[in-house]
Specification:
The structure is a homodimer. Chain A is α+β, with helices and mostly antiparallel strands. In chain A, 34% of the residues lie in helices and 27% in strands. Chain A has two domains: 169 residues, Nucleoside Triphosphate Pyrophosphohydrolase (Alpha-Beta Complex); 64 residues, Winged helix-like DNA-binding domain superfamily/Winged helix DNA-binding domain (Arc Repressor Mutant, subunit A, Orthogonal Bundle), CATH 1.10.10.10. At the A-B interface, β1, α2 and β5 of A face β1, α2 and β5 of B.
Chain lengths: 254, 254
DNA sequence: GCAAAAGTGTTAGCTATACACCCATGT
DNA sequence: ACATGGGTGTATAGCTAACACTTTTGC
């Protein structure tokens, strides 16, 4: 076994780890960042272990930074997955084969097939700013459309499902968008974000009225040109008011 | 060390455990069930370890049953506490002294002072039905008024605080009361429950109108007598409709 | 009879929703 | 010119919130 891997395993918690559902928004689609395990066609959520002297939250920030290059973004725990058997999507044999391909034969029975509990974190990131970077145990790190996510290793499909539910719920008592949209965006873009997350159509006029009523947006004098239609105004979030709204928990009725 | 204790420690997860904030409601006060550690004056939340072949949720149900005698009640995960140092309320020396008093000198450094992550569960139970039962490591198990909870071991004061926040939030999109009140109760009793949890006064007429509008209550022909005032009607929850409301997530506007 | 607490209905203001026409832009 | 999508206001219904007097009961 690689001595660096050995050291990593020895300096981290063994029974509990972290998995991150990282949401991005691009071209009107909600996306999620996935990793392909070395030498396999199997995908999973980005995850990692917690160093002994590090809090779970710190570990989540670190993992997110390692995979996306970003920090200081929306990141929060949403559920801890503690089932005794979290390997439901594949038979034990299939899974062992995958893990052997990635880690070598001396690894899986020692460390990975044992009981493991995972703390699920959810992150919202600006798609364009992400530099998707694979792990030491993965070949590829890329965005998948939420509706096209393949069958993932472990219980990671459940995790995405649960994260999405938590995100939808969040939406109803906190503003969302600051970490998912570029600095400047149009009202229709913001609306499409909401429509995508909630998976339902909203009325343009009512949506705009509602968003403006929260007093967290600043209308810019510029417009976005380039389409064969009337140029929409650009907006940006007033970060101070936005943070206050998150703190105080505005009631978003979308 | 007690061989049964040794066996328990060997057949459970070491790095992650469970703590339960068990809420009860009695005499117009919200209460929480606490344990006093053997040979000490130190209190903590009821908690326990997860058996290797058991899910975290199953462990929580088991722990709750062991401490209260109840099962099939409202119980849910609300947060996982993953700070690197969760012993903030006492100095290491004080804590070691407490743990030595309870477990003997050969225990704490071996098992307990190591890094530990705790999954926080919250339960709502019918006060009158609880048979509060101490642990093998505790002398006493009893209810404390939420406002009179002493400084607890580890980060358990934070846990109660966080559980209470989660409970308040829950209140706004799900009915609450089935597991906290006796089978039959009056409208003012239900209102006091809500007022206690939310820590604010509500209007009697509006509260009644709202509760009745959810169509989860059944008005009984009986009244509660015994006070020097007009006898209030008794109600009970229509369990079927109540469960449906929980499932569908009614918007409670209190 | 008096104190304590419960029963009950109406109104005003606000919020959510439904809905349609005109305008700017690129092809 | 035309297709595409954006800008904008009003009317209605439903919900929330404020509010007071009468009734029952025990002492």
């Amino acid at each position: 076994m690689d001595p660096r891997l050995k050291k990593y395993l020895e300096s981290t918690l063994k029974e509990v780890s972290i998995d991150c559902t990282i949401f991005g928004f691009h071209a009107g689609e909600l996306k999620v960042l996935l990793l392909r395990w070395k030498g396999t066609d199997s995908w999973s959520l980005p995850g990692g272990r917690i160093f002994l002297e590090e809090s779970a939250n710190e570990a989540a920030v670190r993992i997110l930074r390692e995979r996306t290059g970003l920090q200081e973004i929306f990141l929060q725990q949403f559920y801890t997955f503690g089932a005794a058997n979290r390997y439901k999507n594949f038979s034990p044999d299939e899974l062992i084969k995958t893990l052997e391909l990635t880690f070598g034969e001396d690894f899986f029975d020692e460390k990975l097939m044992k009981r493991n509990i995972s703390i699920g974190y959810m992150a919202l990131v600006e798609f364009e700013q992400v530099v998707a970077t694979p792990d030491w145990y993965t070949d590829e790190c890329r965005w998948w459309e939420i509706s096209a996510v393949p069958t993932l290793l472990f219980d990671h499909n459940d995790m995405i499902e649960t994260a999405l539910k938590a995100l939808r719920q969040q939406l109803s008592y906190q503003p969302i968008g600051y970490n998912l949209l570029p600095e400047k965006f149009t009202m229709p873009e913001l609306q499409r974000l909401y429509e995508t997350i909630l998976d339902k159509q909203l009325d343009r006029r009512n949506f705009q009225k509602l968003m403006l009523s929260y007093d967290i947006l600043e209308k810019l004098p510029e417009k976005r040109t380039g389409g064969a239609f009337k140029a929409p105004f650009l907006y940006k979030f007033d970060k101070e008011k936005y943070d206050r709204a998150i703190q105080e928990g505005i009631t978003f009725k979308v």
